[in-house]
Structure to design on (279 residues):
């Protein structure tokens, strides 16, 4: 399946240019439509507006968020107008605690969401729930782009983080259009199990699956020589000069629909190149 409907969410004018540069580059290559949701976020804590609170305070925060949304949309339009892709924008206001509902409602009708890295200096607290909502509630694939670096709409070397999980396999399936056009695909297995049906051929079944789709993949078996799996993956990505990482998105839930799990969180904190994820 080709990606024909791209989606992005902007909550900060400072991040707009980088995210849209990636979205425009990808849309150009695959002839897709890019839809951008520009949100002004009311960052007041849940429960701040207790019964009897001053209505003027409430209205002030809404007005500020509305102005922010209009400013973001204006910047997005100025950037997109200079491109030759098909695009559209929409704006709105959402409270931080209710942000996921708005994002998921749009993300579920897209093929790929292109979003900023949720962690980093001067990154607002709202970016993490935006990524979570697209992945877990919206059920769409997400391309998380780093703060720095040129867009890579046609990655030549792709690394797949493989652990035989359903999430990882879903990510591979969703990434097939990109994998098919790559020159080098590395299936990375870290500390494969010593027992089980795949112990003698870790990653073999995935390699076979990919080959039937015209993807020629190499299998790299690594040892966990660093404290975290994400550390090993990032080091190997640098060694093979990967342009893109494909991995499953893991989460756990208590009071929310889902929140990013440790492995996913650490990867997104460290990544210096785009990460393609699916849940």
């Amino acid at each position: 399946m080709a990606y024909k409907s791209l989606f992005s969410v902007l909550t900060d004018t400072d991040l707009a240019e980088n995210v849209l540069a990636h979205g425009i580059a990808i849309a150009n290559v695959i002839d897709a439509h890019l839809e951008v949701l520009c949100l002004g976020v009311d960052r007041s804590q849940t429960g701040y507006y207790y019964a009897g609170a001053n209505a003027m305070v409430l209205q002030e925060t809404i007005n500020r968020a509305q102005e922010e949304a209009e400013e973001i949309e204006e910047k997005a339009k100025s950037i997109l107008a200079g491109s030759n892709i098909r695009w559209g924008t929409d704006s709105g206001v959402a409270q931080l605690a209710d942000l996921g509902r708005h994002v998921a409602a749009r993300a579920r009708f897209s093929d790929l969401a292109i979003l900023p890295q949720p962690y980093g200096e001067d990154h607002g607290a709202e970016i993490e729930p935006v990524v979570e909502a697209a992945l877990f509630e919206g059920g769409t694939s997400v391309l998380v782009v780093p703060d720095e670096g040129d867009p890579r709409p046609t990655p030549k070397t792709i690394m797949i983080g493989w652990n035989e999980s359903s999430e990882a396999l879903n990510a591979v399936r969703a990434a097939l259009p990109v994998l098919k056009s790559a020159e080098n695909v590395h299936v990375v297995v870290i500390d494969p199990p010593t027992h089980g049906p795949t112990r003698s051929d870790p990653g073999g079944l995935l390699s076979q699956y990919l080959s039937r789709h015209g993807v020629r993949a190499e299998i790299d078996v690594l040892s966990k020589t660093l404290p975290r799996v994400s550390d090993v993956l990032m080091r190997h990505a640098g060694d093979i000069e990967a342009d893109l990482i494909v991995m499953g998105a893991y989460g756990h839930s208590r009071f929310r629909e889902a929140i990013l799990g440790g492995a996913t969180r650490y990867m997104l904190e460290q990544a210096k190149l785009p990460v393609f994820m699916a849940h």
About this structure: Residues 78 and 213 are 39 Å apart (CA to CA).
